[in-house]
């Protein structure tokens, strides 16, 4: 018997949000149907709601890129999962609902001792950090790593992942309390970008030309500063441009220091690429999740019908860690 699904719809005229009801999707071959307990919010959701980040043609038009819940049904060719298993997953859209499907290669076990809200905070941040810091930027133990936006879901998990694999993390955040909290979380030093120039601060600390990896979601005026502090053979990866897509940049240091400057989005990558990320995360990061040395930071949990307030909270920038919807 088909399941009824509640999901969040966007009014195309005024971008307001409301709960609608329809029939839950049937899992296609290689997919898992999940009874969603919690879903993670991401800045991409705000962009999609505003019409600035349309989903791929083969994706669900419903917002939501990560969920945690219980396996409800299996599509043909699914192996390694059983109905009733606890799971967290990177979805191809459709996470703002109480039923969602996900490709089996993007499904992850819930680490021991984690609740559903914590598990829903994992998939997007885990894959984003793993792909950009460890796959693209090839971070090695002993590297100095600068993570901008350290108080975000990506930043808070990224600081812990880099620490767990032997890097030394420096970060930026928007107020003193966040900086203090990020140093407690494991950053060697957190810089308040509202009152400090991180380039000047790193230079005064003797770290100019010694930052091996930079994960940047800011862009704009940070682009030049990143190039200036990067080490010879440094790797800079941009995943967003919150401070602007355009900047006047002197690229001479890029040549002199042989810097790799790259960027990516997670959503545009293939299921096969994401499956590889998940396998590597299970091998290298899951031991640290299982023993509790890496743990997602949850800022607030909202109910599904409070989604508009959850979006407002994310837009304000006041959060520290992940914002979660409970379905």
TrEMBL record:
Keyword NADP assigned: yes
InterPro entries reported for this sequence: ADH-like_N, ER, GroES-like_sf, NAD(P)-bd_dom_sf, Quinone_OxRdtase_PIG3
CDD domains associated with the record: p53_inducible_oxidoreductase (cd05276)
Domain Enoyl reductase (ER): 13-325
Oxidoreductase in keyword set: yes
Cross-referenced SMART domains: PKS_ER (SM00829)
Domain of life: Bacteria
One Pfam family here: ADH_zinc_N_2
Keyword annotations: NADP, Oxidoreductase
NCBIfam families: quinone_pig3
Protein's name in the database: NAD(P)H-quinone oxidoreductase
